[in-house]
TrEMBL record, chain A:
GO terms for biological process: protein transport. This is Ras-related protein rab-like protein-18. Keywords: GTP-binding, Lipoprotein, Methylation, Nucleotide-binding, Prenylation, Protein transport, Transport. The keyword Magnesium does not apply. It comes from Hyaloscypha hepaticicola.
Automatic annotation (TrEMBL), chain B:
Gene3D superfamilies: FAD/NAD(P)-binding domain (3.50.50.60), Guanine Nucleotide Dissociation Inhibitor, domain 1 (1.10.405.10), Guanine Nucleotide Dissociation Inhibitor, domain 2 (3.30.519.10). One of its GO terms (biological process) is small GTPase-mediated signal transduction. This is Rab proteins geranylgeranyltransferase. InterPro entries: FAD/NAD-bd_sf, GDP_dissociation_inhibitor, Mrs6. SUPFAM superfamilies: FAD-linked reductases, C-terminal domain, FAD/NAD(P)-binding domain. It comes from the Eukaryota. Belongs to the Rab GDI family. GO terms for cellular component: cytosol; nucleus; Rab-protein geranylgeranyltransferase complex.
Amino acid sequence: MASDESLPTLKILMIGPSGAGKSALLIRYCDDQFDSESSTATIGVDFKMKKLSVHGKAYRLNLLDTAGQERFRTLSNSYYRGAHGVILVYDISNRESFQAMERWFEEAESNAMPGAKMYLVGSKLDKTNHRTVQYEEGQRLAELHGCGFCEVSSKTRENVRKPFVEIVDSIVRDPKLLSAGSRRSGTVNVGAGGGEGWGTGCAC
Amino acid sequence: MESLSDTKWDVLISGTGLQNSLLALALSRSGKKILHVDENVYYGGAEAAFSLQEVDEWLEKIQGDISSKPFRNASLWKAEASDGTAGLSFSRAYTLTLSPQIIYSRSKLLSNLVSSKVYRQLEFQAVGNWWIYDGETEASLRRLPNGREDISQDKSIDNRAKRSLMKFLKFVVNYENLTETWEPHADSGLAGFLSRKFQLSPSLQSVISALTLSFEPSDQIPVKWALPRIARHLTSIGVFGPGFGAVVPKWGGAAEISQVACRAGAVGGGVYVLGTGIKTSETVTEDGEQLSKVELSNGENVKTRRIVGKNTGHDLANLKSVSKIIAVVSSPLTSLFQSSIEGSPLAAVSVLVFPSKSLPEGTAQPNPVYIMVHSSETGECPSNQCVLYATTLKSDNSKAVLEAALSALLKSTEDDEGKLLYSLYYEQEQQASYASLDLAFNDEILQAVEDQWKTIMADDNGTLEGSFMQFEDREGMNNDDDDGDEGF
């Protein structure tokens, strides 16, 4: 997979209230796994990588989960740094989680870099019997913020690829955004040290 | 979801400053259940970074609390936005840091950030040029040599002085093996030692002293303290590339490291609550085990095996304090960042040193002043501006000294004169040790974290398992999603 290092990398974040199904969506999309028993906050990974091609061009996605820091709203500014896209997730069977979205949009818009793409996701589409948020409400909120929207079920796999494919598509259509996230030439790679200090060599 | 009180925590950590954040990371990744709280609503404690609005809130808190620690006597000045020149930008265009420390290439902090994989969430930038101010010469800012060739090409040093300087440099990078040269003078002042043993001129004494980042004047810096710091400076150059020996993480230095460490701690299962401190704690016995029952300021009661508090400091008689100014300037001061070394990365930070008594007459300047100049590449200000972080030892007139140094700097650069747009003055008292004030990250802090980690890890079973800050990858590489073109 080392060759993937050269692919353009997109950083995409998942945010939203606890229990909205962010990790479930991420794990279903990346690993095609679903654990209906897992209701507690997942002990996460730093980020997940996935290769995705749109319009015949491959991209490397770095997908970041909140690692439980959404619970007390203690996500740090650094979480948002350099993110090209933010996927906001609520639970269609939990009205409160939908009502919290306005504050999550606010947080994302003030912390992410200018022009970063947002995407709204209503999760747990398999729970239509317990639906308390209508499709149209989600759609309206997304329109208000000028972003994409869909409903998904991580349990049945319905639409799980859609948010990722669509947000990546909207990111790559914006070359300015694409280049804004890349590291500048001044970045020092501290993982590749081993050079000699100038004082340690021969003194001639 | 479990409530905080349902869990028996291994360690409750209060305060998200750099030291505690690194400890939380180390412990949570070593399998301990960590509850990490901070009475502030922001991460970073004494190493936090702020937008302009957050500075205002911080200022209000400090001004409203005369016993506030470690910061006090804070005041803010802003230029009137009038005369047509571009003024301050919006609040979030700035990330002003309380900890503009540089990190030397050979600091253990970097190797620990690498071994714990945390470095990938950080972006490091080079600390390029070092400048020394000399009020007596016409070109009042002189760039310090950044390598051996630099010295041999420097026309401002005559050949005899060059030989003396080279002799000293050869000695200092090997000082540990040359004890007979310096041990008899271990407690003497550096300036005298350089003069007597190496015949260095006062001007070269200032140059060498500048590399120590000492708050004391050069005749008062103990030789035994100075030599390792000078050696560190010299042997760090070139480790990560030509022409620089230190780095600073983008977006506010240590502030960014503590945030990233806290996220990595959360990935390891740590739970984070801000705006919440420890109110009271008492010892209780449960199932034959001694626990602390803690009431948090948010009203929750939690049980924990251990508490790690803030570094309240020992009862040191003479705590050092420094005076600081964070200033925003309406010029990128480009000339300060230009490199003379081929192949070196674009530097984002320059260091300016004003040796004691170097400022123009009229300003009594007992101690050196250091100004870290951060370009907009650091993400701390908009382009076409830069942020100046000035520090000197606190004295009767230290605020005036800092202001004089800032104005001398703006007059001395080759750039169009920048105007001061914003100036935040404050004083900072040292916390547990001098290391908390050090202008370069002090590895003592990391040593303290490792000691705390060892104590806690050895707690239950007496033997230490795992190694400090060595973690497996916690990232998943997944199957390709190559059929993504459908629908387009």
